[in-house]
Amino acid sequence: MELFWEIVISALLVIGGFFGLVGSFGLVKLPDPMTRLHAPTKAATLGVGATLIASMVWFGVYKDDLTLHELMITIFIFLTAPISAHFIAKANIFRDWKQDQLPPPAGNGNWAVHEVESDTSAEELQEAEVSQKS
Amino acid sequence: MIRKILPHPHLTLLLTLVWLLLANAYTINSLVFGLLMGLVIPWITAPYWPDRPIIRNLPKIIEYILIVFYDILVSNIVVARIVLFLPNSKLQPAWVTVPLDLHEPEAITVLAGTITMTPGTLTAEVSADGHSLLVHCLHAPDPDGVRDDIKARYEARLKEIFE
To answer: Transmembrane segments in this chain: where (chain A) (predicted)?
Structure first.
C-alpha cells in the first residue's frame, strides 16, 4: 500500500513538473506577446494543481493529517490568473494594437482601451511622453 | 435588523470557511475569529456591491464548475501540445468578438475568467458599452466556431444561473 501511494505522489509531481516546464517553455517559444500569454495562464495551472494535489495526498497518507489549504491556493490561482492575464493583454493592446487591427465590437461603440473618454486617454499619455522627451 | 447585522449571509459563511481552511486548525479559537471577520468584512465592503444578482440554481452552479474544471484539464493538454509540437509558422492566432447576452457585471466577469482558463482562448478586452468581449485565440483555424462554442457552452449556462 505504501508503494502504491508513493507511485501516485511521484506521478502527480512529475505531471506537475512537466506542465510547469511546458508553460515556461511556451513563454520562450511562442512568437508574440499575445500568444505568449496563453502558455502561463493554462499550462501552468495544471502544473501547480498537480503539485498541490500531491501535497494533499502526502499529508493525508504519511502525516495522517488532512490539510485543505492547498484547495485555497488552487482557488486563489483560478481567481487571480485570469485577472492578471486580462491586465497584461489590456496593456499590450494599448501599446501595440491599432483600432483597425482588431475586429470591431458588436453594436456601436468601441473597445474600452480605444475609448477616448476613458480614465487616461491615449492623447494624454502621448502628451506626457512628448513633454518627457523635450 | 438581521439584514443590518448580516448584509450578506453567504459571504459571511464563505469568509468563515476560508479562514478555517487558511488557518488549517479546526478549533473554537479560529472559528470565532473567522466568524468575526465574516461579520466585519461584508459590513465594511457593503457600499461596493449595491445591487448584487440573486443566485438560486445550485445544481446548475455545480454543473458549471465541473464543466469548467474538465475544460481546464483538457485545455492544459491542448495548449501543451501546441507549445511542444506545432511550429510557429503553422500557428494561426486570431481575434474574436463575442457579443454578450449577459447583462450583470458579475456574470460577465465569470464568463471572462472562464474564457481565459479554457482551451486556447483568452479574454483581452471588454467593449466600452459592456456588450461584447474581445477574445484572443492561440490557434484558431475557425474563429467563428470558437465564438459559437463559447456562447453555447458557457454563456447559455451562466444565463440560467444569473437570470
So the answer is: 6-28, 40-59, 71-89
Q: How distant is the Cα of B6 from the closest Cα of chain A, in angstroms? A: 24
For residue B26, the SS3 value is coil
Helix (H, G, I), strand (E, B) or coil at B24: coil
Minimum-distance CB partner of A106 among B21, B83, B132: B132
Query: How many CA atoms does the CB half-sphere of B2 hold within 13 Å?
Result: 2
**Residue B75 sits at the chain A interface (C-beta within 8 Å):** yes
State the CB neighbour count (10 A cutoff) for residue B4.
7
Beta-carbon separation of A31 and B123 below 8 A: no
Q: Count other C-beta atoms under 10 Å from residue B71's C-beta.
A: 17
Query: Among partner residues A37, A82, A112, which is closest to B117 by beta-carbon distance?
Result: A82
User: Is A109–B129 a contact, with Cβ atoms under 8 angstroms apart?
Assistant: yes
Q: Could you tell me if B73 and B39 lie in one domain?
A: no
| Statement to judge: residues B78 and B108 lie in one domain | yes
Q: Would you say residue B112 has pLDDT above 90?
A: no
Cell numbers placing A10: 511521484
Instruction: Return the closest-CA partner of residue B65 out of A71, A91, A107, A105.
Output: A71
Residue B153 lies in a domain: yes
Q: What is the pLDDT of residues A3-14, one digit of tens each?
A: 888 999 999 999
User: Is B41 near chain A, with CB under 8 Å?
Assistant: no
Q: Are residues B63 and B142 in the same domain?
A: yes
pLDDT tens digits for range A24-56: 888 888 888 888 888 777 767 788 888 888 888
Query: Strands, E, within B25-161: which ranges?
Result: 94-99, 121-126, 132-137
Rounded to two decimals, the ipTM of the complex is: 0.75
Domain membership of residue B76 as a residue range: 58-162
Residue in A25, A43, A82 closest to B123 by CB = A82
CB atoms within 10 A of CB B121: 26
